Amino acid sequence: MTRIGQWEAVAVAGLFIIAAYGAVAGGIVAPLGDDSGTASTATPTPTSDSATVHSDYETTAVTVVDSDTDEELGAVTAAIADNSSLRYTGLSETDDLPEERGMLFTYGSERNLTYVMREMSFAIDIVYIAENGTITSIHHAPEPGPDEDGESQRYSGRGQYVLEVNYNWTTDRGVDVGDRVQFDL
Q: How much is the pTM?
């Protein structure tokens, strides 16, 4: 279990991750390596049933709280993408995401990241989270068009964690930059 002070962090998936120190190989941008220090054997499970979506992944409860009042703004159960394979796949093999679910991407340290909507079939919010659990940026990423693969939809931010949730999840709950994310790893 990893705690960030008294705050914890979360991230949701579906996007191809381009680490700040990524490399281009064969025309594909890819992370340089997996710095998580963990070896996961999870494989993506394409489904939309809340009980079985990403059933092979470890999960954690993720809660977002208001930075001024400590009021809970929203919570999801997030699948944990903690290695390069899981981060690469993200939500791209997911048909849709139940409202109370998300994906949390974890990295060994805070860094600049860029996510793309590679082969996504639904829109999401992308929430970048600092090492201390503070939200540093929020992007509302629409679903790629019918003849698009999502590679050109790029969303950059800085964080040690990235939470992906359903489109406008953050707006509907009043989540803003500066609010805090809590979770256990």
A: 0.75
Question: What is the tens place of the pLDDT at every residue in 92-121?
Answer: 888 889 999 999 999 999 999 999 998 899
Domain boundaries, the chain: 16-20+53-182
Domain covering 16-20+53-182: architecture: Sandwich (2.60)
Q: How far apart are CA 100 and CA 118, in angstroms?
A: 22
Name the amino acid, one letter, at 128: Y
